[in-house]
Amino acid sequence: MHIRTVSPVFVGRAPERATLAEALASATAGAPQAVLIGGEAGVGKSRLLAEFLAEARAAGAVTAEGACVEVGVEGLPFAPVSTVLRGLNRQLGEELAEAAAGFGGELGRLLPELGGPTAAARAGRDEDERARLFELTARLLETLATDRTLVLVIEDLHWSDRSTRGLLGYLFRSLQRCRVLLLATYRSDDIHRRHPLRPFLAELDRQRTVLRVELARFTREEVRGQLAGIRGSAPSERELDQVYQRSDGNAFFVEELATASDCGGGSILSDSVRDLLLVRVEALPESAQRVVRTLAEGGSKVEHALLRAVTGLGEDELIEALRTAVGASILRADEDDSYGFRHALVREAVDDDLLPGERSRLSRRYAEALEADPDLVRADERPARLASYWYHARDAARALPATLSAAAAARCRHAYAEQLHLLERALEVWDDAPAEVRRRLPLAEGVESYPLCDCDDEELSFLDLLAEMAVTARRAGDPERGLTVVNRALRHMNERSHPLRAAWFWTQKSRLMRNLARGDGWTELATAQELLAGFPPSRVHAHVMTEAAGWRTVFDPRPEGVAVADQAVELSRQVGDEESELNALISRGGLLAEGGDGDAAVAVLRDAARRAEETELVSVFKRSLVNLVSLLEGIGRSEEAVADADRGVPIAYRYGLRDTESWLHGNRADSLFSLGRWAECETAVRESRRTAQTPVSHALAAKRMALLAVARGDLETAEAELTRMTEHYNTFDVSAPQYAHPAAQARIGFAAQQGRILDARRLLAETLAVDLAPGVGRYTWPMLDAAAVAESEARGVPAAEPGQPAAISRIRACAVSLPRSYPVWRAYALLVEAELRRAEGTACPADWAAAAAAFDGLTRPRERARIALRWAETLLAQGERERAAERLAEAHATAQRLGAGPLLTEAERLAQRGRLPLTPDDGLDQPDSFGLTRRELDVLALVAAGRTNRQIAEELFISPKTASVHVSNILAKLEVTGRGQAAALAHRLGLVGT
């Protein structure tokens, strides 16, 4: 008998339907939309979506649905996304395959029908490949949604795995210029304080592009409409009151109450929600109840063939039992020949009603059936489900190898959080598994250079498991857990008995300590190197020394580090580890550049990039290209840097390396800033921000925008960007000069423009107090220049005088320690010294002439404009007005072209003070208000500011006697008797600024 439990009439939800219709219209217009629909279990989320999807399809949209799958207590990685892609593939077929062409088979990890990954996809580091998978998924959807509207649904986010949440979050952030509407549902009543979905929802709330909709319970009148639809006639007031009171407006409970009497419930319904949900189940025939109980333990849905194998029923008997359960609206039949509960609440009630022994027995039957015939379920779901079934069957001997196999499958899909969860479960059952099982476990994969056991040794197999967990935790973005695992491994082993393994774990600890901002990691790396002393070369040697060379590049880039990099290169070649060799060569290039051999450094990096591209070592290619562009800019070859970045961005896009795009756009912006192409620089920074995927990339974009704003004099923007930079920098270690010094440069420049010289001094002192080796010319010279300018601009300010000598000495001491290997570094050295002499009041034209000569041939217009301005100032003080005018006009024209507000203002003030023309058309002695000349107006402004004749003379580069004559003329023309009256009249009539 078929029981109607669902009203054929859709009741209520007018505001929510309007919201979804508006989102669909916006998506159809080309603006991607995302809507999260929350509500308690049974409130009607799925019904709302079903009605909306029907309307969307009627409007011409292509729809696809997926649901997060509950298998035991963990979700299948990417299961709902795979289901959505499978649905699109059924509808679009060849068009989807064509859209995915050229992606290296990477999308086959989510949709096996597209084939397996190519060599390029397999060669990249896993951290890069996960981001690549996300980017390529976004691109696929953008391509498919160019000429059609896609409405994609993910239900039951409360069961979602972390990898699915990561991919959805990426899509919410990254989809652009396409016709996509993403919809997701979740149970809001399940989201307790520590639920993993809670931080994900909080993150989405910060994105203006994601809309949240919360479904409320039905009102009394809406319950009336629902009952009328189910019953086919209006309910009596008594029945309405009873159902509304008992259901409290929950749509699903209304359905159950409305049909309970048909199943023998009558008027004696229990107050227990579980009992209410079981009423219709218990009214089924015994065979149907058996199938329902079996299905409840199998997961969110179970395939027909698997269900038959587990129940042991004949085909006819099983079909009859399923037909009865479906007719009673307890189960639903899906298109893929699988069955699930019509509502998860019923499944949970049935599962809760099982005895513990029943659950483990059913789980064992599922596992045995699946092992006997693996084709009963989809290949991509098989490992996770088999592991879950054996785990819940409480059979450690079977659960341990099955769980490790599931972990390997999760890694192949870049589902590192799920891989880590499975490895944790393997660790949980390790001691309960027989020794012979622990000794013959399958070898782990993707554990970098760790020396896996491949032997009949239980202890080494355990260390293999810990090594895999350590790497996986790092890839999953859980360095805290990774550090715990590494420390456990180090405590467990005898380092003298296992020196290679111990050295490997110490190297992992070094990386994790840096990731957690708990030190620079050198102590751990040094320990690893000591452990390897006296042993023949191995892949662990190559790994440790390559890490040491990379550490030197970031934290101690002195020439002595080249020997470390050379050793890493040689070891890598001896053991045939090309990836380590190329990474060591990249580090060698950076160290050569800091040592002064820029040409050799560029050649090394270009060769490494070429080899990495030829062998499709994606992660190495990324690092070589990013470092090459940065290195070229650092040694003053900005035009080349822009050209290499322009070549690299399309390649990074092709490989799907979105964060690499961000780095390249950012490095390109640095060079454009140096070249004075500030409009292009701003565009590049915005592109860097748009493609940024990590906190460091976002922080660097904010830093670059702040430096640009400071140069333009836009202090409001600078302050906002510095705040943003600090927020992102708080999430990782920023002690390395490549982060700390440019950040300090931006902060010092901002403080100086606000007149906060004491803050500028403090910022420099704090940055230099970090125990870092000297010699980082690329990042430190611009910071020292900013500090020197701050002192130079603060000369004569009373508050700045007490600490000025010490501050200038600090800058000079640091400058002395820095290398001057390249023309741009030597030019900065002269510029910093000239600014310091200006701060001391001893600068002369020769100082600025020397700085100008050093910058000849270097395309650094901002620095050249500042030098010309300062040179003009000293020439004017010595009475060389014609030469001063030439330099000042040059500085003014460049500042005006750049949009360098502070420089422009300084140039105009100097022109006014020195009565110098900025252009040939400037007139300087035309009479103005009350017959005052422009020079007399300058003097009047200083009189109004309370300056003495001597101070006026110093300010305007004239003699005190000339100043006195000007003051006398002003008093006569204004017809006043004293300086105070002249000042008051000038302010009242607006002759001077206030």
Report on the structure:
Helices cover 66% and strands 5% of the residues. The protein has 48 helices and ten strands. The protein has a five-stranded parallel β-sheet. Strands 8-10-9 form a three-stranded antiparallel β-sheet. A two-stranded antiparallel ribbon has the order 3-4. The longest helix is centred in the first third of the chain and has 19 residues, at 126-144.
List keywords for this structure.
994 residues, mainly alpha, 3-stranded antiparallel β-sheet, 48 helices
What is the fold's blueprint, element by element?
Layout: H1 14-28, E1 33-39, H2 45-58, E2 62-67, E3 70-71, E4 74-75, H3 79-92, H4 94-100, H5 119-123, H6 126-144, E5 150-155, H7 162-174, E6 180-187, H8 197-205, E7 210-214, H9 220-231, H10 237-247, H11 251-260, H12 273-282, H13 286-298, E8 301-303, H14 304-311, H15 315-327, E9 331-333, E10 338-341, H16 344-353, H17 356-372, H18 382-392, H19 396-412, H20 416-429, H21 435-439, H22 458-475, H23 479-492, H24 499-515, H25 522-532, H26 539-555, H27 561-575, H28 578-594, H29 598-615, H30 618-634, H31 638-655, H32 658-674, H33 678-691, H34 695-712, H35 715-729, H36 737-753, H37 757-769, H38 777-793, H39 804-817, H40 823-840, H41 845-855, H42 861-877, H43 881-898, H44 901-914, H45 934-944, H46 949-956, H47 960-974, H48 979-988
Parallel strand pairs: 1-6, 1-7, 2-5, 5-6
Antiparallel strand pairs: 3-4, 8-10, 9-10
Helix pairs in contact: 4-6, 6-7, 9-10, 9-11, 10-11, 11-12, 12-16, 13-15, 13-16, 14-17, 17-18, 18-19, 19-20, 20-22, 22-23, 22-24, 23-24, 24-25, 24-26, 25-26, 26-27, 26-28, 27-28, 28-29, 28-30, 29-30, 30-31, 30-32, 31-32, 32-33, 32-34, 33-34, 34-35, 34-36, 35-36, 36-37, 36-38, 37-38, 38-39, 38-40, ...
